[in-house]
Amino acid sequence: MRKLLIFLLIATVGVIGACSQENPEKNDNDIFVKGGTFINTKSNYNGATISNFYIGKYEVTQKEWIEVMGSNPSEFKGDNLPVEMVSWYDAVEYCNKRSMKEGLKPYYNIDKNKEDTNNKSDNDNIKWTVTINEGANGYRLPTEAEWEYAAGGGQLSKSYTYSGSNNADEVAWYWKNAGDKYLSGEWNWPVIENNKNKTKSIGVKKPNELGIYDMSGNVREWCWNWYGDMGSDIGSFRLVKGGGWIGNINNNEISFQGKFDANGMGPDQGFRVSRGE
Questions:
Q1: Helix axes 62-69, 88-101, angle to 10 degrees
Q2: Which of 69, 181, 234, 240 is the S-S candidate for 118 at Cβ 3.0 to 4.6 Å?
Q3: What's the chain's average pLDDT?
Q4: Close Cβ partners of 201 (under 8 Å, ≥ 6 residues apart)
């Protein structure tokens, strides 16, 4: 009987191992977001519908970045701090390299030798042509719609202005609270700089309705889309969402649309990853 139990246990482990190779499990930090109709009334997509997807519980950390890319471009160093000083191109390249590292099919086709004629930026000297590998199960940047849906709490949404609260200080690191002391008055860069504002460790503030952290504040997050008309295939800037430690309070709003040249980078510029179901 004992030999039979051992045999069954070994067989079961083998089956599980084979299945995990065929269908890699989601990362522990991937949050499943059940699709449906937007119910957050503050969203730009209120009333639209969206499919199921996964999104990072946290912004991509420097530790995660180093494990995949081998170096750390960030201005503020720390394993649990979000990676920053990364361009949109850096982010999509990270998605593909992480996918390959984890045995997933890369989501993007990246042609570094073909200039993207849809990129109308006068400041972007890179302009790689990046297209989607349809049906791939690898990591990718969220679309703006996915980002807003997740930030707004999905089907559990309470229609908060910020991701998880109507009080920015509960959920976001931004210019007033990301330094040595709490600031007041109007946004002022010299004051922010003297206050030693910086990024903060992931997951410190309150999560939103889906258990996702820092979708308001800390670092601005790259999205797939061009800035401007929703769904446009042409543009000069890529969308950034959520505001950051430098930004004013309105930048933390779920609906706020930021923009950046795809080759741009800053100490308040990072991202989080998503995946299809």
A1: 70
A2: 234
A3: 91
A4: 78, 80, 81
